[in-house]
């Protein structure tokens, strides 16, 4: 597996696709650049998802997140783009990405975006983490 940043997410077969279960991944070292000033933006990302047939491979996810380091992106755009890529590669039943950005100009922006399969309903309300 490569040790350089890449936009290639990888997956593996869900070992228990008949069951709803929640996977949560904390990614505390996300960085990108402000598209207006070029200054670095730092965020703590929390990904929570209920897999369907595939799960996300963690080292590939780490290298994927690392690949944003030199990209200029608004917080809202990059958070939604990451969730779109996760949904495209593993088609989860449910996914939520929360991006808690560090202070910039006296504000602490938090962006939350979600995906749900159209025909999916949680087997337990406790699986979906509260906001």
Structural commentary:
The chain is α+β, with helices and mostly antiparallel strands. Helices cover 19% and strands 33% of the residues. The chain has a single domain (23-118), classed as GTP Cyclohydrolase I, domain 2, CATH 3.30.1130.10. The protein is built from two helices and six strands. It has a four-stranded antiparallel sheet, covered by helices on one side.
Short description:
This protein has 131 residues and is an alpha+beta fold.
Tell me what portion of residues adopts beta-strand conformation. Answer: 25-35%
Query: Mean of the pLDDT scores?
Result: 93
The CATH topology name reads GTP Cyclohydrolase I, domain 2
Give the SSE order as H and E letters: EEEEHHEE
Instruction: Give the radius of gyration.
Output: 15 Å
Question: What is the CATH class designation?
Answer: Alpha Beta
Order of strands across the biggest sheet?
Answer: 2-3-5-6
CATH architecture assignment name = 2-Layer Sandwich
Q: Shape from CA axes? A: globular
| Biggest β-sheet description | 4 strands, antiparallel
> Kindly, what is the distance between the CA atoms of the first and last residues, rounded to a whole number of angstroms?
34 Å
Low-confidence stretches: none
Tell me how many strands there are.
Answer: 6
Our count of domains comes out at 1
Relevant CATH superfamily:
GTP cyclohydrolase I, C-terminal domain/NADPH-dependent 7-cyano-7-deazaguanine reductase, N-terminal domain
Structural class by sheet pairing and helices: alpha+beta
Count of runs of 4 or more consecutive helical residues? 2
